[in-house]
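3.2 Worked example (two chains)
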Amino acid sequence: MGLSRGARLYLRLQERLGWLPPGPRALHQAIWLGLLDPPELNRITRFHYGRPGGFESEAHNLGGLWPWEADVVRGCFAGRHRLLVAGAGGGREAIALVRLGHAVTACDFCPALTAACRRHAERAGVQVRVIEAPPDGLPSGLGIYDGIYAGRGFYHHIPGRGRRIAFLTACRRHLVPGGPLFLSDFFTRPASGRPGVRAARIANGIRRLRGSPEAIEQGDWLSDCLQHAFTPREISSELGEAGFRMERYAVSPFGPGSRLGHAVGIAR
């Protein structure tokens, strides 16, 4: 799944137009949100996470869970042996969960990261089953798990509500009744206000002209890759539509003004 011509052009322009002030830069990104369809947006995300010098580093992936992640694991995954980590990246969460006594299967759609996950698990001396996944989804051949952990930042990269609910529904099929699904660290936005409305209007106008069947949502934005900022109601609604009850929603404590949140859904 190499970069398309349009995706390569966007990334070149994004790199060269970094000097633009926020307003024109937001307009540039809104236009490309209209020009790039979900498969191309996924290619950009995979390219972003496959670049060296970041999420595949040993220091990051052997560093263990963040305190609030560990709190969720203690509260929701205690006594649950078989876990799936979706969007596992370089293996940070998977390795930490094995060290806590869980049996872990990990998957990601970026080959550079699945290779890093295998390498870091070997370096840590733990056993993790690592599988490559399709964009926005889970691999075939999975079993039933006691809990699923969607890796940090994974959920807000999935383009479009329909694709996100399809991912959640797939998770539900692989969970025991009452099993927890942890969505770790997604971007959030206030329930009131209109951030992102102008960008969505511009992008959707372009998509209508192109005949694209999938709309851009309020809360979508494009920088190094596609991201979506959620309201609490959106998270609850998407979990509910896929067969989950939202058990927990909280702002991740990165400090004052944190825009990241996390949530736990319980399979009905």
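3.2.1 Second chain
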Amino acid sequence: MLKINSPELDLFHPLIQSAVRAIPESDHYLIALSGGLDSMALLKFALPYLLKFQRTRFQKTKVQVIHIHHGLSPYADDWAIHCQSVCRDLNVECHVERVSVVSEGQGLEAAARKARYSVFESYLSEGGVLLQGHHQNDQAETVLMRLLRGAGPEGLSGIPQQRALSNGQLFRPWLNLPRDMLEQEINKYPIKWVEDESNTDLQFDRNFLRHKILPLLEARWPDVLNSFSRTAERSEQTIQYLLSWCDEQKQSIFSDDYSEDQALDLTGLSGFSDQQQRLLVRYWLDCLQVEHPSEKILERLWTELIPAEKDAMPALRWGDNHLRRFDGCLFYLTSQQVDECPYEFKVVRKADSLSCSHLIGGRDLKIMLEPKKKLLEHALSIRAPRDNEVVTVRSRQGGESIILSGSTQHKSLKKILQAKKVAPWMRSYIPLIYYGDVLALVMLGSNEGGLIADGFQANEGEVVVTVCWR
């Protein structure tokens, strides 16, 4: 929290003073400037304080402004010019970032949000605080929209005032202040802001709530904005308690055998009540940073996947997301992992070096020559290839066999993978390392590590090939 004296700040409304002083300390501030009222209020009320804070506390503090040019409005260029002009007058750096908004079945608003947050994250790659101008009316609209969609505590917690973003954090000083207050205060100064013409289009649900529903609610219940804020705050407190409880159960529901896959142990899950199971499944998806499916799709988890026979391998899909059951566990996969195409490529070899970095099944395969004493954690090592041995990486085609150390007989790779309980979808794309036409190493990508063929073991003290697939 910023704690310095500022005569400029003392001229503003006491609630605005408190909101600005609550901004977290940092040596790098970014102000998201759309050009609208709320973000212009950040420039007027917060910027002078941040600049003074910069001179007082941090010699290298930066304050920058970011305007995202979505290109969705015919006035988008004018808005960018206006923001640059205002910032130039205030002697603060303004970056105009043009983004391409591509709606991929998620709606234009969601696509625009994804595009601008990608920019914000890039600016926060080295830390800092991003300030956004969301206010109490925005919070009320969000809570009301989610309420109408049947949201639970997670949805009703609304817009968070503060959260981590990239390597920094996002903070919204105005979240508990009504828009009317910001407008009344900023109208005392010769400041102009832009109005997005789409904000008056009532075909959008948020605009309908903003212009038709909230005014009616405020006329009947003047304190309704504060009521929505309290709902969001209490819902957030509930969510934090539930997350704390879920964290305590994590060891019971995450599989030890498939820890790299972060698989859900269905035996462990069965020890909880139905209501607790549903909460833990949502928590598991959150840990994987996966967007939750609809209630209709999620219900199929309890009617199709969880009660399936032990040897059955049912699947559930929504968009590019897949849930698969295997060996008593639930796995989350992307379409890339499920639909991996056959591949084959040579590992580049130059003089005494050998290097490879290739994304396979969502994991990075790394192959390199190095002294054995420098072996990577979670890596396997095999002898270096001879001059006449070309190193290639291939996916399974079927019919492969391998002679394991201590044996003279070829063993079917298919049967080995089945015995080691390698998930079926992984068997089609696990990396097979060949020296010439001989299968030297099979990467399993799990706690099993891999299979090294007889005659390819690394010898103590020699230069070896290390292979890591994580």
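3.3 Remarks
The CA atoms of residues 260 and 374 lie 23 Å apart.
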